[in-house]
Amino acid sequence: MKVRLSDYNLNWKVLFERECKLLFDILKDEVVRFEHFGSTAVRGMKAKPVIDMMVLVKDISTIDTYNSIFEVLGYDVAGEWGIPGRRLLRKGGENRSHHIHIYQYDHPEIYRHLAVRDYLLKNLNEVYAYSAKKEELAEKYEETRAYSKAKKGYVMELEKRALKYFEELDGYQVIKILIDRYDENSNLTENDMDQLINEMMSNIGHPDPDIRDALVYSKFCEIILNGKLTVIQIRNVMKECLDNLTYRINEKNNDNVFKRSFSALFLHAIVYSDNQEKFLSEMEYNVLIKGSIDYFINEKDVRGFVDGKGWAHAPAHTSDLIVECIKSQYYMKNFNGEILEGIEINLARLQNDYIPYIDDEEMRMSHIVIELLEKSLVTEQYIVDWIKLIKNKLETTKVKDIIYYRKAKNLNDFIKSLYFGAKNHPVLQKMLITLIES
């Protein structure tokens, strides 16, 4: 077969997508996702006009049962063709148009193929060099077999450079590449998802908000809420986040708070998802809520917005987590006392030891009480008596200095937030007005 090299053609992407639809109609639920790879997947690359594509499937052992259908539709069924665990289909006869590589979703060859493709997509000089090499060899070798053999050494070196490139990337770049792949396909192999999760967990407390907030946290929420994680993956994330809640817990006013606080946000996303899908056991839930309450009580770094680094906001994040925990089917009233104790302790804390809450932390804490009331887990009178007790403790302070007044401001702002949140509890609102005026 004579070597035919073509300039990059936008229609190659169309041909790939058309073949995806045809193969999906055959394999249906077997398919995890499709990948376009090889030279026709790289803009600007000269290539033989043959579409290389991967079909990633749940179980490769089922694919041979479709061989008769493939043959009727014009595919040449080539079996493993030298790679254990692969099924190769070819289309087009002498005028070859497609090479279709079917792999089980966790096959190690997948990463190698995608690493080369993604490396070329990010390194235009490599695209130019590879295209030039192809043209050189195509002039020297007319037949495809000789051309491919001569090109093999260059391709192997290219693969080495691609794999080395990805090994040396920092966390941000790795996450971005994996997220871009996820955004393009709305899916990842289990191995790729494991890698993405590991990179996310390594950067969960990154001091750069562009990495921590915009990239890691927002994408984790999207992935878990769209049901893209296995229960095992979720449980592994949950365990690591719970461990993170105690990471250097006695320190404050440094960047370690981000790791703890954003672990609380990840846990919030997990509990929210569990409240919809019910995948946690009661024992797992109890471990989670106990760890969350302990963190609420013990976190001493209560800064809100940190200049240049974004939101730490530990009291607010943990309050949101506890509200979601209260919504769970497993929540029990015996947690009430510790949770209210946590609110009391946090209301007595000041940012940088002297600044009252200024970023709505007290409002987020009031949401906890509202949720307890909405679920009839506490009475209105109980909450009023509890607030009176906190006020009385504060009033026994011997020295009425600036610290006293700022703690009093935290408490009064909390009562006001509770008042506005208690729209379904008019009797409580009247009692809260009395407390505010007293």
UniProtKB/TrEMBL annotation:
| One Pfam family this sequence matches | GrpB
Instruction: Quote the InterPro entries the UniProt record gives.
Output: DUF2785 (IPR021247), GrpB/CoaE (IPR007344), NT_sf (IPR043519)
Name the record gives this protein:
GrpB family protein
The species this protein belongs to is: Macrococcus equipercicus
